[in-house]
Write a structure and sequence with these properties.
Layout: E1 10-16, E2 20-26, H1 59-76, E3 82-86, H2 97-111, E4 116-121, H3 129-136, E5 140-144, H4 150-157, H5 165-173, E6 180-184, E7 186-190, E8 193-194, H6 200-213, E9 217-221, E10 232-234, H7 237-249, E11 253-257
Parallel strand pairs: 2-3, 3-4, 4-5, 5-6, 6-9, 9-11
Antiparallel strand pairs: 1-2, 7-8, 7-10
Helix pairs in contact: 1-2, 2-3
């Protein structure tokens, strides 16, 4: 199935289901994917199919490209609702991620102070103090937790290094509520194995983790674009609504994207 490789370092703006008019910031190469996960549902495809040949954009290149795009949008009278770090993989992999966050906040304050700075991350590098501190400085610190099942993570998220979900939950707790948990729910199968995480055996332990993390919000969603894996199916609106209701019963805000 077709997948998406985003321009770098700036793309869009695009209309995000969850965030509004979003100007994307892609800290990965423009011709491939760099990620510490290799999710079966990733819209950018599998890592091995999109090995980049170009280097990472530099801190200076990101800042200059963002400045130029914000100036152009200002002239057009159309400013973004959010500046979103996303794109071809895991943004916190960039060695100058903390400094780029600082540059972005300065540019946001100058050109579009009403816009939020958001980061979409898979949570694999939040144990690094500099990454943690940078994420504490953004408005929307959106971190992935698809499940608390190590087996499901192995089967679906395919970590590219060591990954201990218990330690990830501890690091999510360390944000002291300044975190938005993002979870993909889906059905179907991949490589002959079920990927359905909508049942109580997955949802109830995940809810227990949310009680510990106490995020400011939870975002649940399902497949929206084509994936590299055949056999994946969307979670139904009824399933998503039922899970969201259980999150709200914990006193945690929850948004749903069908």
């Amino acid at each position: 199935m077709s997948t998406i490789i985003y321009p770098s370092p700036i793309f869009g703006p695009v209309h995000s289901r969850r965030l509004g008019l979003s100007l994307g910031i892609n800290l990965l190469p423009a011709d491939g994917k760099v990620c510490s996960f290799d999710c079966v549902y990733c819209e950018c495809g599998f890592n091995e199919d999109h090995r980049p040949t170009l280097p990472l954009p530099t801190r200076e290149e990101v800042a200059e490209a963002l400045r130029q795009r914000l100036e152009k949008m200002q002239q057009e009278g159309r400013m973004p609702d959010v500046l979103t770090f996303a794109g071809n993989g895991e943004p916190t992999c960039h060695p100058h991620f903390p400094e780029i966050i600082d540059d972005t906040i300065l540019l946001r304050n100058k050109y579009c102070p009403q816009a939020k700075v958001s980061v979409l991350s898979n949570s694999t590098l939040i144990h690094r103090p500099a990454v943690h501190d940078a994420l504490m400085r953004v408005d929307n610190n959106i971190l992935k937790l698809d499940t608390v099942s190590a087996e499901y993570i192995r089967r679906v998220d395919h970590p590219q290094g060591s990954y201990d979900v218990g330690m990830v939950i501890e690091r999510l707790k360390a944000f002291d509520g300044h975190v938005i948990i993002q979870t993909m729910f889906m059905q179907g199968e991949a490589a002959g194995e079920s990927v359905d995480n909508t049942g109580s055996e997955y949802v109830l332990p995940w809810l227990d983790a949310l009680k510990e993390i106490q995020p400011q919000q939870v975002m649940i969603y399902t497949i929206d674009r084509e994936t590299p894996t055949p056999g994946l199916l969307k979670a139904t609106p009824e399933q998503l609504d039922g899970i969201a209701a259980q999150v709200r019963q914990l006193g945690i805000a929850c948004s749903v994207s069908y």
